Amino acid sequence: MAPLPDHRNVLDPSWKRAWARFAHVTTPLRERGLICDVQYGLNDWIVYAWPPGHDSVVLIGRQGGWLATHQAPAEGWTSMTVLYDTTASSGPGDFDDVGPLLSAIDALLARLTRAPSPPTASGVHVAEVPAPPPAGRGIRGR
């Protein structure tokens, strides 16, 4: 499992509430090896996930539905690829059903080199030791 974030906000009560709020998203992503963090965006909290061995980032927001995008530094961070979007669908979004969202991210990981395979349901939990995220991948403005 990928390490937990290591920055000064992990002690902030609002960050802890947001981390807990998105645990049903961050936990499966961390099981896939993605380093995750949460940060408040324009209107809601956003989950950032860095694929293992890559400088790209996946942004996941839930403003009226799930929106997951992928940005790669090779594109100069100027363009995004939409991986999954339910924000335009009619009716209230089911924010607890993250299966289709995770499937879209699994498809991205399968296209990236050095991507790990999705986790298996073994029921075995490994103890975690928090470690800092890779250098150069932090979120500014904290």
Report the principal-axis shape.
Answer: globular
Overall mean pLDDT: 77
| Sheet with the most strands, sense and barrel status | 5 strands, antiparallel
**What is the number of E strands?**
5
Number of helices: 3
Structural class: alpha+beta
Rg, rounded, reads 15 Å
Order of helices and strands: HHEEEEEH
Spatial strand arrangement across the major sheet: 1-2-3-4-5
Indicate the proportion of strand residues: 15-25%
Spans of at least 5 consecutive residues with low confidence: 120-142
Structure description:
- This protein has 142 residues and is of the alpha+beta class.
- It is built from three helices and five strands; from the N terminus they run ααβββββα.
- The chain has a five-stranded antiparallel sheet with strand order 1-2-3-4-5.
- Mean pLDDT is 77; it is low at 120-142.
Write a short abstract of this structure.
The chain has a 5-stranded antiparallel sheet.
What keywords describe this structure?
single chain; 142 residues; alpha+beta; 5-stranded antiparallel beta sheet; 5 strands; 20% strand; disordered C terminus
How do the helices and strands line up, and which of them pair or pack?
Elements: H1 13-21, H2 23-31, E1 35-40, E2 45-50, E3 57-62, E4 66-71, E5 81-85, H3 99-111
